[in-house]
Design a protein that fits this description.
The protein has one domain: Ribokinase (UDP-N-acetylmuramoyl-L-alanine:D-glutamate ligase). It is globular. It has helices at about 35-45, 60-75, 120-130, 140-155, 180-185, 200, 210-215, 255-270, 275-290, 300-310, and strands spanning about 5, 10-15, 30-35, 50-60, 80-85, 90-95, 100-105, 130-135, 160-165, 190, 220-225, 230-235, 240-245. Strands 5-4-1-8-9-10-11-12-13 form a nine-stranded mixed beta sheet, sandwiched between helices. With about 325 residues, it is of the alpha/beta class.
C-alpha cells in the first residue's frame, strides 16, 4: 500500500471542564490529550492500516513522550520526529462557550513544533513515501512552506501524489510570498480538500463551477468540498457525488475534519470508488466528535463498519 507522509505540529490539548468564556479565573482542566491537526490526520491514516509517517518536533518532556508513544502504538512511522531539548512540546488550552464556539490559548510558534526543520531522517521518510498530505496549519512560516515544497518535489519526482487541505485564513494569504507559495502547492496537488469558501479562495472564480473548472485546469484530479453539517461533495471531471453528514451527539468537534481527511485520502489512494470513500470519510468525521479529546475519536475500519451499519448504510 502507498505510504502517506505529513509535515506539521504535534502538541497536547488541555480542556476546561466548565463551559464559559476564556481563562481569566481558576478552573478545573482535563488533559493532556495528544493533538495537532497533522498528528490527528496521520493517526487516523494509521488506524486504517495505511503505511504512514510524520515530520515534526516535540520537546524533551512528558507531553512529547505522550504524543510519540500514541502515534507509534497506532502504527505511525515516528522516525522523523525530532526532540528539541531547549523548547517544550506545543500546547493548546481550549474552553467551550455556551454557543459552541471555543477560546484557545496556543503555544506553537515558540514551542518545539514551531521549529520543524529539514533533517536526514525527514529526507529518508520523504524518500520512502508515495504521497504527501499538505495541511494549511503547517504553512504558518516561510520555513514550513519551503519544507512542504521540498517534500512535494521529492515525492512527485518519483511519481508520487499530493493532497492539500488548505484550512487557511484569508489574512494568511497576505503574508509575504504566501499566496505565491499556495499557488505553487496547488499546481502540484492531485487531491484538493477545501472547506466552505476555501473552494474559491485560491482561484480567480466566484462560483463553484468556475472554481472547479479552474482547479481541474491546473491539474487537480479530484476535489472534495467539505461543508460541515451539510456533508461533503466529491468532484472530478466526470462526476460529482454528495454524502450527507451523519446526525450524532457532539461531544468534541476538534479533529473531526482531520479524521475525515485522513480517511478519505486513505481510501482514495486505495482506489476506492468515490461514493464509498466519501461515505466512510463522513463516518470517520462523525465518530471523531463523539469522544472528548481531539485524537480520541480516530477510528479503525471495524469502527466505521459498525457505525455505518447502525445508520443503515451497510447490511
Amino acid at each position: 500500500m502507498k505510504k502517506i507522509v505529513v509535515i506539521g505540529e504535534i502538541l497536547v490539548e488541555i480542556m476546561a471542564d466548565q463551559i464559559g468564556e476564556g481563562f481569566l479565573n481558576p478552573l478545573s482542566l482535563t488533559g493532556p490529550f495528544p493533538s495537532g491537526a497533522p498528528a490527528i490526520f496521520i493517526d487516523q491514516v494509521a488506524k486504517l492500516g495505511q503505511p504512514c509517517g510524520i515530520v515534526s518536533t516535540v520537546g524533551y518532556d512528558d507531553f512529547g513522550r505522550l504524543n510519540v508513544s500514541r502515534l507509534k502504538s497506532d502504527g505511525v512511522d515516528i522516525s522523523a520526529i525530532s526532540e528539541d531539548p531547549a523548547r517544550p512540546t506545543g500546547t493548546a488550552f481550549v474552553r467551550y462557550r455556551e454557543d459552541g464556539s471555543r477560546d484557545f490559548i496556543f503555544n506553537i510558534e515558540h514551542a518545539a513544533c514551531g521549529q520543524v526543520a529539514m533533517t536526514e531522517a525527514a529526507q529518508t521518510l520523504f524518500d520512502s513515501a508515495d504521497h504527501l498530505h499538505v495541511m494549511g496549519s503547517s504553512l504558518s512560516s516561510t520555513t514550513f512552506t519551503e519544507l512542504n515544497l521540498h517534500a512535494v518535489q521529492s515525492i512527485k519526482r518519483r511519481g508520487g501524489s499530493v493532497s492539500f487541505d488548505p484550512n487557511l485564513r484569508k489574512e494568511m494569504l497576505e503574508k509575504d510570498g504566501m499566496r505565491q507559495a499556495m499557488h505553487k502547492l496547488l499546481g502540484q496537488t492531485d487531491l484538493f480538500l477545501p472547506s466552505g469558501d476555501e473552494l474559491t479562495l485560491l482561484t480567480y472564480a466566484s462560483s463553484t463551477d468556475d472554481a472547479l473548472a479552474e482547479l481541474f485546469g491546473k491539474g487537480v484530479s479530484a476535489v472534495v468540498h467539505k461543508n460541515g453539517s451539510k456533508g461533503a461533495t466529491y468532484h472530478d471531471v466526470k462526476q460529482s457525488v454528495t454524502a450527507r453528514a451523519f446526525p450524532v451527539d457532539e461531544i468534541d468537534p476538534t479533529g473531526a475534519g482531520d479524521c475525515f481527511g485522513g480517511a478519505f485520502t486513505t481510501y482514495w489512494l486505495r482506489g476506492t470508488d468515490p461514493t464509498t470513500a466519501l461515505l466512510r470519510a463522513c463516518a470517520a468525521g462523525a465518530l471523531a466528535v463523539g469522544k472528548r479529546g481531539p485524537m480520541e475519536g480516530t477510528s479503525n475500519a471495524d469502527d466505521i463498519d459498525s457505525f455505518l451499519k447502525h445508520h443503515g448504510e451497510l447490511t
